[in-house]
Amino acid sequence: MSLTIEHAQALSEGLVDIGTAAEASGVSIKMIRHYETLGLLGNVPRTATNYRMYQPQHLHVLRFIARSRKLGFSIEEIRALLGLWQDRQRPSAAVKEIAAAHIHDLQARIAELQGMVDTLSQLTGCCAGDSRPECPILADLAGGADLTGGDPLMTACHT
Amino acid sequence: MSLTIEHAQALSEGLVDIGTAAEASGVSIKMIRHYETLGLLGNVPRTATNYRMYQPQHLHVLRFIARSRKLGFSIEEIRALLGLWQDRQRPSAAVKEIAAAHIHDLQARIAELQGMVDTLSQLTGCCAGDSRPECPILADLAGGADLTGGDPLMTACHT
DNA sequence: ATATTGTCTCCCATCATTGGAAGGTCAAGT
DNA sequence: ACTTGACCTTCCAATGATGGGAGACAATAT
């Protein structure tokens, strides 16, 4: 394909080095190299002196990764999405399926966290939060294994 | 305090081995040993043959940890809560402060995840999800740079 | 006596990201 | 020529909680 070229020549041809790529994509230099080792960037050209030189296409991939990470996709999901992105024949259903599964995961995590918030909110609502030692929060944590029947909090808290 | 004893003798004195402790507390054997190395269990007695033997007090702590973990507290938060739990003079305000800070963290994480869900839901709502290649999800991830040469107008979705 | 659990310690893997250090090479400005 | 800064590689570490496995020893049941 393309032979190795010199640094200045590559710059004049629109390629950028890793520092510029990091700045342009919002991905740190460390992570750019990391993603390359994960095979997400394909072949990255090098100069004769072994400098990585990035084409606009690589910057697009880096921005794609950054955006996907912000949406919580895992690396393996991103790998799949990148494959679909670069496949002009892909059915949009394949992409939608990944996204739907991810939404499902996210909602499960939200529900789990929300359950924690609900329980803790009840407990803190029942805790005087003063200098006295009585504390329904600790009472709940200490009695956690005995929560077989009812919530001891509800019997102890009459707010 | 107590010298090392034999296994059978310890059992007859009400101490239990790690397997029984795991079953009784809901904490895995692996994690029981891990929590011990983190200093959350204090001194755990050993038999002459180096078996860990747990007293009822240790089981209480393990249940406390298990319950706290279910509520999303970190190990360091649990360490603090355990300290307060075992301090009869603690002010409940100290406990409530930890719980309130934790609720704040949980809500921040929920908001972050919910933002992802909102964005992704909008995108999947715009995605036909059929055999055609046009996909607003990929178009968004690509940030308007579509390697497939697709029509940028396909990103438009007016739901 | 033996077979089967149970337990011991120690090491490694996850997941994504970041950091540092060591030991070089290279590009650009003075 | 020289300095400075950017880049190269490889290795190691840590996050946080959890799990898996190896190899050795102990307890129990047959």
How many β-strand runs of chain A?
A: 2
What is the number of helical segments of chain A per DSSP (H or I, 4+ residues)? 8
Low-pLDDT regions of chain A: 144-155
β-strand percent of chain A reads: under 5%
As a whole number of angstroms, the C-alpha radius of gyration of chain A is 26 Å
CATH architecture of the largest domain in chain A: Orthogonal Bundle
| SS-derived structural category of chain A | mainly alpha
* Alpha-carbon distance between the two ends of chain A: 74 Å
How would you write the strand order of the largest sheet of chain A?
A: 1-2
The helix/strand series of chain A, from N terminus to C terminus, equals: HEHHEHHHHH
Greatest chain-chain contact: A-B, 57 and 59 residues
State the name of the first-level CATH class of the largest domain in chain A.
Mainly Alpha
In short:
Two copies of one chain form a homodimer. Chain A has eight helices and two strands, in the order αβααβααααα. Chain A has helices spanning 7-12, 18-25, 29-37, 56-70, 75-85, 92-126, 136-142, 152-156; strands at residues 16-17, 53-54.
Key terms:
DNA-binding; 8 helices; homodimer; Multidrug-efflux Transporter Regulator, Chain: A, Domain 2; 2 strands; 2 domains; 3% strand
What this model shows, in words?
The structure is a homodimer of 159-residue chains. With 159 residues, chain A is mainly alpha-helical. Chain A has 2 domains: 1-90, Multidrug-efflux Transporter Regulator, Chain: A, Domain 2 (Orthogonal Bundle); 98-159, no CATH class. In chain A, 60% of the residues lie in helices and 3% in strands. Chain A has 8 helices and 2 strands. Chain A has a two-stranded antiparallel ribbon. Chain A is elongated and about 75 Å long. Chains A and B meet through helix 4, helix 5, helix 6 and helix 7 of A and helix 4, helix 5, helix 6 and helix 7 of B.
